[in-house]
Specification:
129 residues, alpha+beta, Nuclear Transport Factor 2, Chain: A, 6 strands, NTF2-like_dom_sf
Length: 129
């Protein structure tokens, strides 16, 4: 097994993750994370050690997407860097589609992914500029 740098596999992973985010599918979101996991931003950091903790950290995301009428998310992969035999750093800009079919700019994140037998999982998320 090697670090996932295959763009098709990474695109499939982020498509699944984006669909889970916009639909509020908390178990599917949690299944995209390695445990323990870490989220880092300019003013906060938090970690989680269970699928329930991952799900709890995303409870507010689905209503936010619904309030903004965002119905789909697409991860535009900007950079892929193998970090070790099983770790890959992936820079992503999220693009959203609203209920009227308009593109809505998103945010940028870097994801440290670990390759497992089931595919990539997120170890660390860093919100970037």
């Amino acid at each position: 097994m090697n670090a996932s740098t295959d763009l098709d596999a990474l695109t499939d992973f982020f498509d699944r993750y984006g669909a889970a985010l916009t639909s509020g599918d908390l178990p599917a979101i949690a299944s995209c994370y390695a445990l323990p996991g870490l989220v880092v931003a300019d003013t906060y950091s938090f970690s989680f050690n269970s699928p329930a903790a991952v799900a709890l950290s995303f409870v507010g995301a689905a209503p936010d997407y619904q309030d903004r009428e965002l119905v789909a998310a697409h991860a535009r992969i900007e950079d892929v860097r193998p970090m070790s035999a099983l770790l890959t750093m992936v820079a992503v800009e999220w693009e959203f589609l609203d209920s009227r079919g308009h593109a809505v700019p998103g945010e940028r994140y870097s994801y440290l992914l670990r390759t497992t037998g089931e595919g990539p999982v997120i170890c660390t998320v860093v919100r970037t500029a």
